[in-house]
Design a protein that fits this description.
The complex is a heterodimer of chains A (545) and B (98). Chain A has a 5-stranded antiparallel β-sheet with strand order 1-2-5-4-13. In chain A, strands 3-14-15-12-11 form a 5-stranded antiparallel β-sheet. Chain A has a 5-stranded mixed β-sheet with strand order 6-7-8-9-10. Chain A is globular and about 60 Å long. Chain A has helices spanning 6-28, 33-41, 65-78, 101-109, 143-153, 229-243, 254-261, 263-277, 286-295, 314-323, 351-364, 387-396, 427-437, 441-444, 503-520, 527-534, 537-544, and strands at residues 45-47, 52-56, 62-64, 82-85, 91-96, 127-128, 168-171, 185-192, 199-206, 219-225, 324-326, 332-337, 348-350, 368-371, 377-383, 411-412, 449-452, 466-473, 476-483, 495-496. Chain A contains 17 helices and 20 strands. With 98 residues, chain B is of the alpha+beta class. Chain B has one domain (2-97). Chain B has helices at residues 36-45, 69-76, 93-97; strands at 2-7, 14-17, 22-23, 50-60, 63-66. Chain B has a 5-stranded antiparallel β-sheet, with helices on both faces. The longest helix of chain B has 10 residues, at 36-45. Chain B is globular. The chains are: A alpha+beta (545), B alpha+beta (98). The interface between A and B is medium-sized, with 27 and 22 residues.
């Protein structure tokens, strides 16, 4: 994992001191809320439906056990005993006092954590593949590049007041586990064959996103050598900063710029700007990337770790098949801890559960954890001969639901239960769906269901095989149903089925959709495959008759 | 009827204007009638409330019930965590909100 150098620590410590002074001035009345709001948002502090909410950054979703325990401590000392892991690989605390916020940030800084780049029109926390450094299918660990982008983007003076927020994802495998093409910029690390075996570089996709106007990012550059990537990003952001709209918040994202001028025109402008910035020393020397990469060097995996796993406990075997994935090192495995118990709140974990996951990471995963955009937690490096013990500990803590990528593994935003922007509740709906389909999840196979409580799409409803969007219809919650979306390498945007439903109605509609899928599927077809083969018509008929 | 609400500056708690001060309980909220904007300005200026706004509500025997579901959830707490509502584990809290 990356460890702060003196500059990182000094920056974070200085920010804590600055925010403490700002909070003092706000509480004393020296600042109005209008003056204070942009400052608190720069430190991840929102005012939500019930209280202040603090969003803490988890850069590229990677944590160690000390940091995880600190989150549990914050949940106990400053909040109400739990936290909410988000679709941006961050964590939110819902019941924060303004007067406590500087102390919380000071405690976070002791573990190299902060809440910078979790709000505002800046480059937000960089997201990545939760299996980075462990997956057998990656060409390289994407996190050193993500970290370099973090360093380049943090407090970047030119990009701190962009037309709108800006999200970057980095992956390095053909399987897209980070919804890469639904980001403002998506980077896929690839190797370009050469006599030395292959130069590492990036495919650059620009202009993706969900929200009010969902778009899939087109490929803008098929290969940027790693040593020139920061200059290219500088050029890409400059063109957006220059031409992105500031007159209309709904048309300010880079996807709108791409849509309005076209990908070719944008590409040409970036190329021209790239020539202009190339001699400005933006790309760091190779030694700096090597310094960062060295901190992500994999643990010393035991080559003698046994590969066999005793599957005699049937409950364990189910979990093993569903929540455990292949690791690049023999005798090891990647464990996904589902934060989606039947009837639970997606992404929520109690302080005790957070502590337990930290303990397991320290004992069995080389001290590493990951937060996933699907609101789960990953132990990336577990010896196979430790899996049974890990599962038992998780089971005893209510964390062993074997539902990864099944219909119960629901992504849901906080919705109207917590969020001041929401139009409808997401969580109660997720709970009803989870209960309705409990016991049938494996029969339905891979089925990614995603719920947003408003058009901003924090619950990724456009990318759900089944998506749900909550709307306000004359003061009443109403839910639109979408089918056919995907955030993976087969990326697509869901389509609305027709008129919306009330809460119970949308659950019934999903049951009719899945029944039709079971009746129509051919061998090996996922729900998404059947939908793509048949189209909307048979499902619409099943829903509306 | 019209209510005045906002958040406590330091704690972030949802608070309601009672006619003489602020309460966390919507049941104690007062009808501000047409005079709400003046109270809002005065209280915000004195930093006794943060981000205040006026809303419609309906009088009931149990007290005012905000007209919009968002304000009812603000008043009662998350519908999915009965243990965090102002009257913890109140079985009536859900039906009052919805």
């Amino acid at each position: 994992m990356y460890r702060y150098d003196e500059y990182d620590q000094a920056i974070v410590d200085a920010r804590v001191d600055e925010f403490r002074d700002q909070v003092t001035r706000r509480l004393s009345g020296a600042m109005t809320e209008d003056q204070f709001k942009p400052l608190r948002l720069m430190n991840g502090l929102y005012l939500q439906l019930h209280a202040y909410m603090l969003r803490i950054a988890v850069p590229y979703g990677t944590l160690d056990s000390r940091q995880m325990r600190l989150l549990a401590h914050i949940a106990r000392k400053y909040d109400r005993g739990y936290g909410h892991f988000t679709t941006r690989q961050n964590i939110q605390f819902n019941w924060i006092r303004l007067s406590d916020a500087p102390d919380i940030l000071a405690e976070l800084a002791t573990a190299q954590m902060h809440a910078i780049q979790t709000s505002g029109n800046c480059i937000r926390n960089i997201s990545s593949d939760q299996f980075a450094g462990a997956a057998a299918d990656e060409v390289a660990d994407p996190r050193p590049v993500a970290e370099l982008i973090r360093q380049w983007s943090t407090f970047h003076p030119e990009f701190s007041y962009l037309p709108r927020k800006f999200k970057i994802a980095v992956i390095a495998a053909d399987e897209d586990r980070a919804a890469m093409r639904l980001h403002d910029i998506g980077l896929k690390l690839v190797r370009r064959p050469n006599e030395q075996g292959g130069d590492l570089g990036a495919e650059v996709y620009v202009g993706g996103g969900m929200g009010r106007t969902p778009m899939i990012a087109p490929l803008i550059k098929d290969f940027v050598p790693l040593g020139e990537l920061m200059g290219y990003l500088e050029a890409a952001l400059r063109v957006y900063n220059r031409y992105g709209r500031r007159d209309n918040i709904y048309k300010a994202r880079i996807k709108i710029l791409l849509h309005e001028i076209g990908a070719d025109a944008y590409r040409e402008q970036v190329e021209a700007e790239w020539v202009a910035v190339r001699d400005q020393g933006i790309d760091p020397p190779a030694a700096e990337l090597e310094r960062i990469a060295a901190m992500f060097a994999g643990p010393a995996f035991d080559p003698a770790a046994p590969d066999a796993v005793d599957r005699s406990d049937p409950d364990f075997a189910v979990w093993l098949d569903q929540n455990v994935r292949a690791h690049k090192a023999p005798g090891h495995a990647i464990v996904t801890i589902s934060l989606k118990p039947v009837g639970g709140i997606p992404g929520d974990a109690t302080a005790d559960q957070i502590d337990l996951m930290a303990d397991l990471a320290q004992a069995h995963s080389f001290d590493e954890l990951r937060v996933t955009h699907a609101q789960n937690i990953v132990l990336p490096h577990v010896r196979k001969d430790a899996l049974y013990g890990v599962w038992q500990a998780l089971r005893d803590a209510g964390l062993a639901e074997p539902n990864l990528d099944l219909i119960g593994d629901i992504i849901a935003c906080p919705g109207l239960d917590y969020c001041s922007l929401a139009n409808a509740r997401s969580i109660p709906l997720a709970q009803k769906i989870s209960r309705r389909f409990a016991g049938r999840e494996r029969e339905l196979g891979e089925l990614k269901l995603k719920i947003s409580g408003c058009i901003n799409a924090c619950g990724h409803h456009h990318a759900g095989h089944i998506g749900i969007l909550g709307v306000d219809r004359k003061g009443t919650e109403n839910y639109q149903l979408l089918l056919g979306g995907s955030g993976a390498e087969d990326v697509s945007l869901g389509k609305i089925t027709g008129p919306g439903f009330d809460e119970d109605g949308v659950v019934d509609a999903i049951a009719r959709v899945t029944d039709r899928y079971l009746a129509e599927r051919t061998s090996g077809e996922r729900f998404l495959d059947t939908y793509r083969r048949l189209g909307m018509a048979p499902f619409k008929e099943a829903i509306y008759g | 009827m019209k209510l005045l609400t906002g958040n406590d500056l330091a704690t972030g708690d949802v608070i309601w204007w009672t006619g003489s001060g602020w309460s966390r309980h919507v049941a104690e909220a007062a009808d501000v009638g047409e005079g709400g904007e003046a109270i809002l300005q005065a209280e915000e200026g004195a930093r006794r409330v943060n981000v205040p706004y006026l809303l419609d509500a309906v009088p009931t025997p149990e007290g005012p019930r905000p007209a919009h579901i968002k304000d009812r959830i603000r008043a009662a707490g998350p519908t999915v965590r009965a243990d965090l509502t102002l009257t913890p584990a109140d079985p009536q809290a859900g039906s009052w909100v919805i």
